[in-house]
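Hello Y.,

Per our agreement to keep a running log of every chain we model this quarter, I'm adding this entry. I've kept the format consistent with earlier entries: sequence first, then predicted structure.
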Amino acid sequence: MNYELNRYVLLTQLPLLQGISSTDLLGWEDALRLDMDEFPASKLPLIRQGDNCSQLLYLAEGELFREHRSADKHFAIRSILKAPAIIEVDRLFGLNPTYQNTYWAKTEVRMLGIRKSLLGSHLMKSEVFRLNLLNTLSAIAQKRAAALLPIQLESVEERLRHFVGTLFPDCEGEVEIYIKMKDLARYVGDSRLIVSRLLNRLHEEGSIRLGRGHFTIKDIQDFIKTTHS
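Predicted structure for the entry above:
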């Protein structure tokens, strides 16, 4: 009984399910199959970029590595997704309902999947769920639109920070960017030498860590805020 109670308390704390009573969730138990799957930490992908987004997928406990590779193959970005979180809900419908990232377990994780076909028959009938979904999709759209707004930037450092902000519009904490110096220079519109000097200075100041073929930003929100200060 305690296990069931704890499970439903956890469910009602997940994104989009907040505000829905455990009684309502119990009523959906048979149809939605609200059992959670457990996965150990592993380098094997649980989801691959380009896979069909066929279910509403939750990270209920643990942490996932998240990686996106650009269509032009010139860069890859990595970050960490921490529970509780919903995975790419904005990719469920639309012109290209596929995952934008590859995910693998950084720690032991618990995940919950609800088939997309069941949203209309159950979850979308809940006013609370519909409002939560609308707010979530609106927030995602607004963050991405804000990251892409044109800004008059004079220095290469401002252009670099703005470029990074477009890559990580809704991430927190530590992130990684895998990119060749010549490609990064093209993205920020300056010479390879100038960009290399900038990265070395930022490394010396402690805001990034330089590695071979990549660099790590210690606090992405702090890094991109400097662009607008």
